[in-house]
Write a structure and sequence with these properties.
There is one protein chain. By secondary structure, this protein is of the alpha/beta class. The protein has a single domain, classed as EAL domain (TIM Barrel, Alpha-Beta Barrel). It has nine helices and eight strands. The C terminus is likely disordered.
């Protein structure tokens, strides 16, 4: 027992030391990453459901930081928020992502992630000719704040579509109750926790799909990890999905021929 506890403690300390090292690297490199635009983009495919899934409907752009590839991506954005550098980092990532849009087929859409603050500044980095192909993923938490209506109105005025992102199935009832017209074009529901063994979540999703259809909203199932969950998503009539079950985002170097 003592030996086991010592091993656990040692593993925990090593993991903690690794996190501290990553945090140090990220903090030291953040300014140069922004200045040198040392961000790459990986594209996760979003597939239409109900058919052969031969060709993606669109992609979600995911940031990659090659100067410290081992550090979790979220750590870069947390460090940027904590130090007041979030806006330039977010706008850089979106601008890098628009390079991908230009090389994709003309009917392909691209989802980009943005905070409420960054969403209000996207006009500066998105070419007007590409705006109609850009979908801005806004965190679900923003919808519960007074800024949501202004953010959404700004995106619509610039010709971009909005998606409410990271909505857990358990939050769908509250979303339906609180969301007012004009509605966003998309709602992205996070099914990473699994639906096959969660009847309550499946029922919430089923009701949300019906509500969304009645209100002109397209539901995108994201983080679909298991074939069983994909089968449920298709059975519920969801038309678009993304996740490792359908396709992992190839690392940036593998996209270069397509870009």
């Amino acid at each position: 027992m003592i030996a086991h506890e010592l091993r656990v403690s040692e593993e925990y300390l090593l993991a903690l030391a690794q996190v501290w090292e990553w945090e140090r690297l990220v903090d030291e490199q953040l300014d140069s990453v922004i200045a040198e635009e040392a961000v790459e983009v990986a594209l996760q495919p979003i597939y239409p459901l109900g058919g052969t899934k031969e060709r993606p409907w669109g992609y979600e752009a995911l940031a990659r930081f090659p100067t410290a590839p081992g550090a979790p991506v979220g750590m870069w954005f947390r460090a940027a928020v904590a130090s007041g550098r979030a806006l330039p980092l977010e706008l850089l990532c979106v601008r890098k992502a628009t390079v991908a849009v230009e090389a994709l087929p003309a009917d392909t859409s691209l989802c980009v992630n943005a905070s409420a603050v960054a969403a209000g500044e996207l006009r500066a980095v998105v070419d007007p000719d590409l705006a109609a192909r850009v979908i801005v993923d806004i965190p679900y938490a923003v919808v519960e704040t007074p800024v949501w209506s202004d953010v959404h109105a700004g995106l619509r005025a610039w010709g971009m579509r909005a998606a409410i992102d990271d909505v857990a199935p358990e939050a769908l009832r509250d979303l339906r109750a609180g969301l007012q017209p004009p509605y966003p074009t998309f709602v992205k529901v996070d099914v990473v926790a699994g639906l096959a063994d969660n009847g309550a979540a499946t029922r919430e999703l089923e009701e949300a799909v019906s509500w969304a259809r009645d209100n002109g909203i397209t539901v995108i199932a994201e983080r679909v990890q298991q074939p069983a969950d994909l089968a449920i998503v298709e059975e519920l009539g969801i038309s678009l999905a993304q996740g490792y079950c359908l396709g992992a985002p190839p690392e940036p170097g593998r996209h270069r021929a397509a870009w």
